[in-house]
Structure formats: structure tokens, C-alpha cells
Amino acid sequence: MAGEQKLLTNSQDKNPQQHVPVQEYSENLREITRFLASAGVPADRVIFITPPPVHEPAWEKECILKGCSLNRLNSVAGQYAQACVQAAAQCGTDVLDLWSLMQKDGQDYTIYLSDGLHLSQRGNQFVAQHLWRLLESRVAHLPFILPYWGDVDPKSPESSLLSTQ
């Protein structure tokens, strides 16, 4: 426990300008949900997304190139992911748990990260694929308001778009 606390302290000491304590992060998520609710957005329309995992060896190389030492730990990213999942449960929102999904069954999650911290093209595709599953369940029942793009007359788009159905 003391060693773990030391790691956390060292991690936040190395990048204090970007550090938000996990408890404050969790409260911020709940506050955002309350704000959205006050603006008429119900919790079932909100989706939280956890941080992805951190590949420490790759990120450490990037840090060294920038003249600093490793300032992110995967275990700490996991704590923030867990806080996000818990906040989503408390708020009644869905959550896309990238941290868990990307590491599921011991898969090589490094392909999803460009530098050990930020998403690569494949990482963004991973997010889009999993996010679409959550979004599709919310919008599949909605009617189309505008015509399919192939049904729009390119010579007279107004007639296609402004006609009553």
C-alpha cells in the first residue's frame, strides 16, 4: 500500500499541471451529468468513455524524447477507468470501458496506441466500432428525416430535400 501510494504521488508530482485527483475526476463526471440533466439531456443519452490503457515502455520513450521521465502508469489509468465506470453506474449512464476492453483476454493493446498514451488510427477505429454499438441501440428505432444520399437528385437537390414525405 505504501509503495503504491508512492507511485501515485510520484506520478502526479511529475505532471502536476495535468493532474486531477481521482476523487475530483469522479465528481467532475457526476457534475457534468447533472449539468446535462439541467439542460434537458437525460442520463440515458449520456455515454462515459474511460481512459485507454497506458503502455508504459512506449510512453517512457516518448517522455525521454521530451526531456522528462515516465509520468503515466497503466495502474493509475485503471483507477481512473474504474472511477469512470462507478460514476456511470451512479449516474445511470452507459460507459464504454476502453481500459478493460483493450486489455481483454491479454490482447496486445499496443496497436491501439500511437505512442503508448494516445490513440492510434486503429485505436480510434476501435473506439468508433464499440461506441457505434452503444449509439446504434439508441437510434435504430428513429425514423429517417431526410432522404438517403443516393435518393437526392444532384440536378435539383432542393426538390428532393424539401418535398414532403
Order of helices and strands: HHEHHEHHH
Question: From the alpha-carbon coordinates, what is the Rg to the nearest angstrom?
Answer: 21 Å
Our count of helices gives: 7
Q: Give the integer mean of the pLDDT values.
A: 90
Q: Sheet bearing the most strands, described?
A: 2 strands, parallel
Structural class estimated from helices and strands: mainly alpha
Oligomer: single chain
Q: Could you give me the name of the CATH homologous superfamily? A: SGNH hydrolase
Query: Helicity range of the residues?
Result: 40-55%
* CATH domain class: Alpha Beta
The overall number of domains is: 1
Give the end-to-end Cα distance, rounded to a whole number of Å.
65 Å
Strand order of the largest sheet: 1-2
What are the SSEs and their pairings?
Layout: H1 2-14, H2 22-38, E1 47-49, H3 56-65, H4 74-91, E2 94-96, H5 98-103, H6 121-139, H7 157-162
Helix pairs in contact: 2-4
Biased composition (Polar residues): 7-20
Organism: Takifugu flavidus (sansaifugu)
Family: Belongs to the 'GDSL' lipolytic enzyme family. IAH1 subfamily.
Question: Would you give an account of this structure?
Answer:
- 54% of the residues lie in helices and 4% in strands.
- With 165 residues, the chain is mainly α.
- It has one domain (1-162): 3-Layer(aba) Sandwich (Rossmann fold).
- Strands 1-2 form a two-stranded parallel ribbon.
- Mean pLDDT is 90; it is low at 1-10.
